[in-house]
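Q: For a teaching session next week I want to show students how multiple molecules come together into a single three-dimensional assembly. I've collected the sequence lines for a complex. Could you give me the predicted structure tokens for the whole thing so I can convert them for display?
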Amino acid sequence: MPLYETVMQEKPPIVLDIGNAYTKLGFAAEAYPRKIIPTEVVLTTTGETKRLFDYVATEQLYDQIVDFLQTIFFKHLLVSPKERKFVVVENIFGQSVIRETLARALFIHFDVSSVLFVPAHLIALSTLAVPTGLVVDIGYSETTVMPVFSGVQIMSAFKDQSYGSSAVHDEIKRQLLATGVKESLLTPSVLEDIKIRTCFVTSFERAQAKPDKETTPVPNVDYAICDDDAVISIAGSVRETVYELMFEQNNERDSLPHLILRAILDCSMDVRCALVESIFVIGGGAMVMGLMARLKAELQHLLANDSYYAERFHGDLQFKFYNTIGKQNFTAWLGGALCGATDLIQTRSLSKETYLRNEHVPDWSNLCDNRHGG
Amino acid sequence: MPMENNIKILPKSVVCEESTLRGDITFSAGCVVHPSATIIADAGPIIIGENCIVEEYATIAHRLADGASWDASNILSIGSHNVFEVGCNVEASRIGDRNVFESKCFVGRGVTVSGGCVIGAGIQMRTVQVLPENTIVYGQQALQREAIEKQGSQTLQIDFLRKVLPNYHHLRKPNYDPKKARSVV
Amino acid sequence: MSFMQPSPVKYACSCGILNPINKLFFCRHCPKLRCGFCVCHEIESHFCSNCLENIPSSEARHKKNCCANCFDCPCCQHTLSARATTVPVVRKADESKDGGESGSDAAPSPKPSAMPTTKKMYYLSCLSCRWTTRDVGIPDQGVATGTWPDNECLYQVRFNTLMEYYQSVVLQEKQEKQEFMRRKAPKQHKFPSLTDRTGLTVSLIRRQIGWNDKSIPKTKPINITPAEASAEVEPLSEDIFTQPINLRNVTTVAQRHSQPADQPTAVNNLYPQRRSLWIKRSLRCRHCEHNLIKPEYHPTSIKYRIQLFASYHVPEVVMVRCEQPLQPGQTNAIFLKFTNPTMYDMTISILDAPPADAQVNMDAFMQGCRIKEEAITSSPLLKATGVTLTRQNSTREVTREVRDLANATIVPLDNEFVLSQRDDSKEFDEDVQAPIEEPKFIVWRKGNKVLMRLQFTPAAELQTGDEVTLGFYMQYTYVNTVSNTPDKKEPTTHALYSRLFIQAGEIAQGTAN
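A: Of course. Below is the structure for the complete assembly, covering every listed component.
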């Protein structure tokens, strides 16, 4: 295959997936990211750590992105970004200011040769080699649902809610504060550690059980917080219930199962059945124990017992799920790595020359970029 | 509190004279106490097991609780083969065998150290807690992990110190021989 | 005085960012101040920070930027070190019962009669958290740089299939497009070629003379089995409701992310990680593409081949003290120590506005060139150097306006003063310099150092506790030893200026009026 051999012989493209909490970075055609690092910058002036997307002015964001990318290139990837090709996995509904600033930093400050922006949901699906799927991305700040049919994203059926890992952190904090733990102890890193090491999604049966009914409580955990040298007890109920905010039953009907079902209903009738049988859950938030089992039980339960959905879904439907190859938190990155290994990096990228002509990243939502009949 | 120090040193122990010892302290056979180590038995006797090493500027203290007074039955027992590294400060309520207290660590009064534990350098432990067997506390966040086996004893080091220390320091003489004591009684 | 502490004196870099002088570089060819933000960083060499071995970049790429010999602890990310133990080798005939003995405290087999042969076995151990390869059941190795298990990726085969599949899909698409374009585009020849008229096509001729068809066979996408969705999902184990969890067996986020391929949740799946390489960087001026910093190649050396730190070229200003406590609206004076780091005398003047001749040259001013350069000897030279300096290169220089932080007005000095050259031998001279006529703002002078007094007035509206910042322009003469033009060999003198901001301190408590 002489055509793509030439692609591989030159320097492999860099694949970046800059998430709200963690950034996945590595090279195209590799099966897993080189590093997964917190999306944080260390300010050179004060030495304090700061989240990348906390900013006041665009210029500040630009400086932070430059600092962050500098760390990525010279501390983690150890390659010079100059004249490199890039694949950037992006949230399709992400803020355009971030996208524009990132492009400006890459093209103007780092002098890269081309950048290929790929939409996260679509590219994640490519790791399965299937054209159709309902991609659920449970991220840090939000959970998004995007149906994809035959390789086309159904934008009108996109759904998102603000429960992601950060909402879970807040819930842990709220519940622990209620048990009398000092607030100063519960730093974000402690909350994350508590979440990842002790918490889980409980089973459907236990969640449905009435509060007054006695269930065997989940064992408590003694958790040592080291900064202030304290030991706090994390009640079993905390471990079990913090993820309930994704499944909360309320009048808004915006819990995760509802979100999925509504996204399916927003698609045309012909694709619904295919979507029901191809749910694909990705994102770091999806790695918690018990999530998939619970999600499936909830979906089947709603389908059978909720009159709204029973009216609209017909036939004997069985929800089916795809397993990711690799871990969920870098599935979208993996798609980008696959994409960067193909010739698409030559043909579809935004090249430096094109960018410098009018310093603008083409955007699907921008009418100016969609005018021509191509 | 007893009016005078009552230091019992069993044979084969090497206790340097420049060390600060206060209260009722018993060193079992084979202990090595470096110069300027400090052992304070305010609240009750301290009994140190065999082959322990107490390095320079290490402090082992059995301090009085508020309002308490000397109590001969309140014994701080320290097991055998423990290493107290340079500058550590240990006030633990009980210490088992084969523990390592690394440099500059602090172990507070409420802590019970079982056996085979390692308290990493610079770690501060104040909260009341029990360290299970083979716990290793390490790193800036004082994370805990469990070792697969107990730390190896430092026999070579003890033998070396036993040879070297007497060449350069005055030693306190072993003053208590269990065999003799038994024959006397 | 302010070692390891943020310096109160900040210089405005030519890109507009404020930095203390020790973070600035000075491009002799431009000649301008540069900072880490406005220079081009390049990778000079890869090395391992543990074994200090230099690794060529091609090898580094091949090894995925990891050292071949050094490992990091998966538990605490510290470096692992190899420990040796002696293990008795089992003699088949006579000694078989001692064979199982091993371990760190393994004393050599005590039976002298059997003449036990021992061999050294190695395992990796972390000196920080005492993790060992034995913790996860990795057998000891016969050589120190043993064949420790590498991260293997469970789905590598599937990934490769996927990659081949997509590559062939994209390739096919591309070929179809090319085919389409060729058919769509009419022949552009003005005259029909011979082959067209005779109907002899290239492929026909090739076939006639027995060559292969030149056209590449159409690629078909290779077959791939798409992933199967299943209704079966991993159930939550019932144990979690009843069994207490042991936090020591659950990995932390950092531990998981240090093993990105498998991200184990249990500590017994942690494996030693190959240590990431480090790099040496060289810095290059974006404007003239000259190196500002070039380290020596060898990892053990900390010297530079090229080092254009600003503190070797630009007079250093150190704030000594203020004369009186700072009060809003009250005239005060600040003592500043100037040091000349160069081998040439400098003439310095302190201004409250950019030098007049710099303002005339608005063009240069707008480009953000905050330093005006002027050849004293001849003005055509300036033109010549100007031409060479504006050589365009690929990377654009982005400048921004200097943020004016000053909230005090200074009284500019009425005349300039000379800062003598640096002379290391003079440091030890006993004889006192003959007193010379000094301007009265100069408090003290020794060698290449001058202490001077600068009057200023903090703004009247400042409140107690507000930071007072002075801003001024320091014009200095700089003798450039590198020549930008080949014909001119003698050093040229430039009059440069830097904009400085000094945090004088906070408005003191007390009654101002």
